[in-house]
Amino acid sequence: MHAPPPRDKLLADLLGLAGVVVATAALWSVTEVPAGLEGVQAPAWGGLLDLVLEGPDAGEWAVNAARVAAGQAREVDHHRMPTWLLLVGGLHRAGVDLVTAGHLVNRGLYALLGLLSWAAGRALVGPGTGLLAAVLVLGSPHLRLASERYGIDLAVATAVAAAAATGLLAGRRPRWAPVAGLGLAAAALVHFTTLPLVVPAGLLAVAAAAPGTRLRSGLGLAAGLGVGLGLAAALLRLPSPAELVDAIHDGLPASAGGGGAGASLAAVLGAVLPGLGRGLGEGAALVLHAARPAGLPWALVLVAAAV
After folding, report:
1. Burial of 90 (0-12, 13-18, 19+ CB in 10 A)
2. Consecutive H or E run containing 269
């Protein structure tokens, strides 16, 4: 098969991007303000949930974002990673209300999630596949709700797409590998659960590269990642491995042997490994529940699949 002419390829990319913009607007989740709530005015870009501090651990994330805005980035809770906090804190420092800042960031991440999904699908197959990927991801009822809530749930999902997109960029465009590494660092520093994303991103970069450029792609990605993590460690307060172990142990239920600080890695593994089989099954069930195929926008999915 011959590659399409550059003009046709550009047109396909533009149509794909336009499709992503249309899909993002069509799937933009808005919880309407009930008619009985007089004097409550939702923002033009959102709905009722964008007015409130609602979401998993929302209050603690807001407190730590306020610390970042006040120039106290080294005072944040030791287990909270900086990427989302820097975005929200930056907006708040610029004069945006703290609650509004968090919601604005998540709305922007929802749009970015669609673009990253399109970019990954385009790099793997083509712009049509990218559009289908974007519609499937943006149409997830779980992610649509997360875009209205306060906190980092949507940022974690966006970090996964960013890891795929940066890995593919580094592999297909070696000269951009250091820039991709910086983006990967930002994705990895969303949450301590996103730190391992650097491994599949690196493997994807090597797999996607041409045989003669694999070393250049891998080293470029690693260099950018190292610079990004180094800057974050120098300017911010990143958790130590021991603090991460404490945070994970503290998050485990007492019935599983969790809770409390000063835990060792052996204690964490001892609490997690016995229930690993059951946990994997429950995790798979949660993934299927979050996907909710019946709630996907099948009309848009079929249109994207036909492109």
Report:
1. middle
2. helix 265-272
